[in-house]
Description:
33% of the residues lie in helices and 18% in strands. By secondary structure, the protein is α+β, with helices and mostly antiparallel strands. It has a single domain, classed as CBS-domain (Roll), CATH 3.10.580.10.
Amino acid sequence: xxxxxxxxxxxxxxxxxxxxxxxxxxxxxxxxxxxxxxxxxxxxxxxxxxxxxxxxxxxxxxxxxxxxxxxxxxxxxxxxxxxxxxxxxxxxxxxxxxxxxxxxxxxxxxxxxxxxxxxxxxxxxxxxxxxxxxxxxxxxxxxxx
Length: 145
């Protein structure tokens, strides 16, 4: 099965020039903890509720802080024609719960969560991915860039 069969196609994208307050309101409206950040039809980052808490609020930055200042610029992604098993394995290796999905021109076409993977591929692969994601530590820290 391909990841395009599991992903969510309706993706809200934030602009890096919007404020973290805008991002937080958008996250609340769609009940999500992450937003892809796009500029000029390209994915330039990701912002999470944790980025807002740790990189902005904890550092004394105000609600008018541009997303660009606190977003993660390293964007991990998968291709829409990747297999669900490969994406689940990659999510476990990278310890991420969500990945933007792009086409071969690297245009954003969706987003996939570990929950999406679990719904279409229940079993050992999903369990292994969940175990990998849930491990403490990992390469992703909350320090800026």
